Protein: Probable nicotinate-nucleotide adenylyltransferase
Amino acid sequence: MAGPDASGGGTGREVAILGGSFNPPHVAHLMAAWWTLATQGVSEVWLLPSFRHPFGKALAPFEDRVEMCRLAARELRGVHVCTAEAELADDPLVGKTARTLEHLHAKHPAYRFALVVGADILPDTDKWYRWDRVRELARIVVVGREGYPPVPGAPDLPAISSTEIRARIARGEDVRGLVPERVRRYVEEKGLYR
Ligand SMILES: Nc1ncnc2c1ncn2[C@@H]1O[C@H](COP(=O)(O)OP(=O)(O)OP(=O)(O)O)[C@@H](O)[C@H]1O
Ligand SMILES: O=C(O)c1ccc[n+]([C@@H]2O[C@H](COP(=O)([O-])O)[C@@H](O)[C@H]2O)c1
Structure:
């Protein structure tokens, strides 16, 4: 798998990582990326698809999720896709964010990193591999998510989820408006989630 599309360059710039299953990417992911760019003083947002899910969830093939992230990222200037987790495919800690962030720091020593997470993630961080290390390696930025406790200084993004989108597709329902149009067409062409 090729390295990140994410462009490099610049000293001391902070890049925000939005990690996720992206199974599939949806419009609330893009809202989170846009809000981060607009308010968090970062130069870029990198969508980072999980190579393997840390809690063992079954996911569509990595290549499809990367391609869907690329199609989604085309909607926003400053948003790129980072495939760095694939470079850790043989590492026992693949998929663990602490390991991914260590890898990103080694690869991009001039950058600082922020990690964007939705409010649904916060109650689960005690189950993460070394959340303490994650916090050392990245500034944590939390965005609100409807249905979860409000986050001071961040909006609640709408209650759109990949789970609901997969369920709708499986029932043969239309997901227009919930995923970027290019992603919707890709899902349809590839027959994903049916
Ligand atoms: N509607 C939303 N509002 C705010 N944050 C969100 C929203 N959807 C996803 N996120 C955040 O984006 C990141 C990646 O999310 P992920 O790819 O797991 O999407 P998801 O919709 O939660 O997926 P699934 O339903 O499969 O669990 C996580 O930090 C998650 O909290
Ligand atoms: O490092 C961990 O232990 C860990 C546990 C759960 C989730 N994460 C990361 O959090 C991000 C969002 O995860 P998810 O389950 O909402 O798709 C994604 O980048 C995952 O790799 C990381």
Observations:
- Residues 4 and 36 are 20 Å apart (CA to CA).
- The chain is about 30% helix and 15% strand.
- The mean pLDDT is 94.
- Helices lie at 27-39, 62-73, 97-107, 131-137, 162-170, 181-190.
